[in-house]
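Intended use. Records like the one below are meant for learning the mapping from a protein sequence to its folded structure. Do not use them to infer anything beyond what is encoded.
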Amino acid sequence: MFVFGTKSLKKKLNPGEFDCPQCQQKTQFWERRPRTWGHLYWIPIFPIKTYPSYVECRSCETGFVPSVLDFKPGDSGERFMAKFERTCLNVAAKMALSDGHIDDVERSEIAQMMSDITSTEFSDGLVNNALHDMQKSELTVQELLADIAPSLNDGAREMVLMAVVGVAITDGEFAEPEIEQTRTCGEALLMSKAHVSGIIEEAQAHVHRKKSEIPA
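Structure written out for the chain above:
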């Protein structure tokens, strides 16, 4: 009996030293290239799909797009925003816009979500700019997440999805367009359907509990 399947491997490429935005100090990194292989009897035989390479800090193990190597603290006095952060903001904006309505509560939730992710205070101006850009943008959630999803670990993927779901339910509703957007985000984040369904069910239960607490 043949045993065939697929396996994801992250090959270590060029090592080096960089200024890690997460550690906020100079540290060592690996450049990694994720690739899905077809395996026979658990032995990788041939590559199926190669994903964009990324930079992984060897200290905090955070993944960054390669342009992070150009980051030099103090060069411009502006805080560096990794592509991961920009993508989270844009995906949250897409989620907030998915039901055709956006209010100040959702804007505040996006700002709070981004503050939690970046550990810095996030301005309403950046949120409004993202909402404006995503309202006009034809980019899909899949396209927004395509560059970062392969470099995220399971915990980071769940964090991103939970964050955008939090934006969706902050108005006390979890409408069908928002649920469908959640499924799309989960698929783009390479999460299993069962995992995504569990998060959706938990969000629906949360909304139901909140509604039941409102006095009749």
